[in-house]
């Protein structure tokens, strides 16, 4: 399209090109790797970069943490649903798209978190944005207290609510209390935070935040996206593990990570579910999830409620990989979670390491740059699953050791 010819003076092409050039100049232009996973063989996959046909690779950065996206029960449930009812839901929840699969899954998710109800969205992003924006509009004069490391979808919801907001330092209870104490005690208040912070691999002090919420009469909104399916005896997340699920007003989760498929949800008192269902544009005005996806999630949630085998295997794999990286002198962050961040501190170097791993070793890990993480804390984020073997970990650690030497990168302190 010839923008210049059409646009009477505004040089659209130049503006778009400059926007992309800025990303190149900072070394954080995003390159998506073209892959196909092999059914039932995770973490093995094929990469379509280059001209020599697909190349076998090992995936180290998937958020399908437990490989449930390839679990035989999940695949069978999806095949059956496709066969029984076809591909799509056919409408919004209000207009024809409220299938029995959706109703069943909401019941299953409410039960998972010990709540009266749950509500499905097309993604975790949408559930955060739609719920936070709507809640704060419904509560007149609502003030939101938000952890500084909260996900972009929560930030978008808070912004779109137009309400007063206060950002507290990451997991800093004293700062949160100082801010809670500084506002009108009679104003409605909401504390928005995550349980597992996905880039740091650390965990919020849930019980202590609930204590502050009680003290200052605030509601709590907890993003358990990286924890549902992964923690707690039935996969109810950190709120289940820590025995505080009943103290969280709204739990939010994804169906695309540990549950291996796609979609998002909230779980809460029926009254709150009814408000969001009735007022949130991001819920109301969009086609509901395909029943095929919902059937897969149902199988996944039911399986992970009853089985801890995958969770335990994943935790063991993460502990083993952290130990091997530490042993090799690599600057791994040693949090308490399933996430293994390896610090690089420079976007160009992070990309270079990722490129070498893929081209020379058939190892795929995506570099994580600003704005996903603060500048100067660029990293590689490994998510070992139950099927990453010790041999794969040895191969990975050796490759990283060689690259660290070759590029003269900083070792662990
Ligand atoms: N919350 C957090 C903390 C996330 O990391 C993400 C996605 N990475 C989301 C919400 C959005 O979830 P989804 O991918 O299901 O849209």
Automatic annotation (TrEMBL):
<comment type="pathway">
    <text>Porphyrin-containing compound metabolism; protoporphyrin-IX biosynthesis; 5-aminolevulinate from glycine: step 1/1.</text>
</comment>
<dbReference type="InterPro" id="IPR015424">
    <property type="entry name" value="PyrdxlP-dep_Trfase"/>
</dbReference>
<keyword id="KW-0808">Transferase</keyword>
<keyword id="KW-0012">Acyltransferase</keyword>
<dbReference type="Pfam" id="PF00155">
    <property type="entry name" value="Aminotran_1_2"/>
</dbReference>
<dbReference type="InterPro" id="IPR010961">
    <property type="entry name" value="4pyrrol_synth_NH2levulA_synth"/>
</dbReference>
<dbReference type="InterPro" id="IPR001917">
    <property type="entry name" value="Aminotrans_II_pyridoxalP_BS"/>
</dbReference>
<dbReference type="InterPro" id="IPR015421">
    <property type="entry name" value="PyrdxlP-dep_Trfase_major"/>
</dbReference>
<protein>
    <recommendedName>
        <fullName>5-aminolevulinate synthase</fullName>
        <ecNumber>2.3.1.37</ecNumber>
    </recommendedName>
</protein>
<feature type="domain" description="Aminotransferase class I/classII large">
    <location>
        <begin position="57"/>
        <end position="400"/>
    </location>
</feature>
<comment type="subunit">
    <text>Homodimer.</text>
</comment>
<comment type="similarity">
    <text>Belongs to the class-II pyridoxal-phosphate-dependent aminotransferase family.</text>
</comment>
<keyword id="KW-0350">Heme biosynthesis</keyword>
<dbReference type="InterPro" id="IPR004839">
    <property type="entry name" value="Aminotransferase_I/II_large"/>
</dbReference>
<keyword id="KW-0663">Pyridoxal phosphate</keyword>
<dbReference type="GO" id="GO:0003870">
    <property type="term" value="F:5-aminolevulinate synthase activity"/>
</dbReference>
<dbReference type="InterPro" id="IPR050087">
    <property type="entry name" value="AON_synthase_class-II"/>
</dbReference>
<dbReference type="InterPro" id="IPR015422">
    <property type="entry name" value="PyrdxlP-dep_Trfase_small"/>
</dbReference>
């Amino acid at each position: 399209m010839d923008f210049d010819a059409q646009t009477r003076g505004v040089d659209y092409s130049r503006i778009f090109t400059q926007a992309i050039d800025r990303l190149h100049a900072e070394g954080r232009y995003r390159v998506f790797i073209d892959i196909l996973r092999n059914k039932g063989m995770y973490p093995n996959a094929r990469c379509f970069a280059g001209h020599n046909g697909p190349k076998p690779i090992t995936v180290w950065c998937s958020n399908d943490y437990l490989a449930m996206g390839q679990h035989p029960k999940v695949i069978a449930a999806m095949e059956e649903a496709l066969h029984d009812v076809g591909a799509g839901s056919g409408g919004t929840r209000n207009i024809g798209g409220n299938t029995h699969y959706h109703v069943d899954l909401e019941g299953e998710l409410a039960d998972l978190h010990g709540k009266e109800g749950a509500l499905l969205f097309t993604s975790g992003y949408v559930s955060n944005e739609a719920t936070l924006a709507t809640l704060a509009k419904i509560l007149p004069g609502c003030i939101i207290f938000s952890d500084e490391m909260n996900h972009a979808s929560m930030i978008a919801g808070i912004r779109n609510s137009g309400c007063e907001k206060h950002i507290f330092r990451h997991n800093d209870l004293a700062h949160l209390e100082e801010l809670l104490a500084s506002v009108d005690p009679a104003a409605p208040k909401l504390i928005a935070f995550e349980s597992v912070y996905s880039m740091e691999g650390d965990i919020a002090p849930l019980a202590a935040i609930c204590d502050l919420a009680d003290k200052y009469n605030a509601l709590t909104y907890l993003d358990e996206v990286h924890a549902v399916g992964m923690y707690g005896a039935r996969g109810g997340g950190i709120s289940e593990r820590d025995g505080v699920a009943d103290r969280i007003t709204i739990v939010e989760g994804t169906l695309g990570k540990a549950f291996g498929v796609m979609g998002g949800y909230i779980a809460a008192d029926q009254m709150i579910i009814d408000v969001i269902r009735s007022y949130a544009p991001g819920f109301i005005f969009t086609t509901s999830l395909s029943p095929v996806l919902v059937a897969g999630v149902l199988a996944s949630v039911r399986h992970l409620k009853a089985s801890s085998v995958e969770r335990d295997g994943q935790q063991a794999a993460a502990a083993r990989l952290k130990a091997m990286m530490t042993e090799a002198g690599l600057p791994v962050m040693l949090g308490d979670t399933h996430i293994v961040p390896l610090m690089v501190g420079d976007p160009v170097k992070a990309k270079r390491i990722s490129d070498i791993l893929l081209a020379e070793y058939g190892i795929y890990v995506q570099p994580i740059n600003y704005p996903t993480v603060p500048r100067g804390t660029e990293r590689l984020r490994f998510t070992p699953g139950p099927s990453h073997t010790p041999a794969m970990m040895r191969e990975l650690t050796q490759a990283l050791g060689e690259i660290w030497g070759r590029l003269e990168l900083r070792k662990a302190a």
